[in-house]
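To close the section, here is one more complete example, presented without commentary so you can practise reading it yourself. The ligand is adenosine-5'-diphosphate.
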Amino acid sequence: MKRAIFPGSFDPFTLGHHSIVKRALAFMDEIIIGIGINENKRCLMPVEKRLESIRKLYADEPRVKVLTYSGLTVDFAQEQEAGVILRGIRTVKDFEYEEGIADINRQLSGIDTVFLFTEPEYSAISSSVVRELLHYGKDVRAFLPEGMEI
Ligand code: ADP
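Output:
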């Protein structure tokens, strides 16, 4: 069983995230979307709401599970018996940062990180851009998977 965890804050879960999950399902048996809980971070959507709306999105996909976790991502990955951590890369800057984290995670746990490059049409969409647009009262539906509620 090839199981990956896809960790993030997913505040909110965007089309870019959705595309990464879809592409990873082509070579993984199961994806666990792990919503990291960080009490010090101000969020747009309460964790419960994120959990519910992402679960709804994958209600018909038994190979995708959505959970919350706190603490180290590698501890969560080990708990879930996931062989790899999945991360999406939008920019070169993302990659430089993520490479360092992946190294630390591998040293801590032996668990490797698989990177998928974001498709160009989604690379400008980050959760923080969506949050910013919402702040200014813009319609963000075009950046969210169909049926996703925020
Ligand atoms: P974090 O708070 O850990 O950066 P995010 O919720 O922003 O978490 O993102 C979760 C994962 O999805 C990360 O691997 C991030 O690089 C990736 N990601 C973020 N935005 C996109 C996007 N538009 N397309 C693909 N992957 C993305």
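Once you have examined the tokens, check your reading against these statements. Residues 8-10, 14, 16-17, 20, 87-88, 90, 94, 118, 122, 125-127 surround adenosine-5'-diphosphate (CB under 6 Å). The first helix runs from residue 15 to 24.
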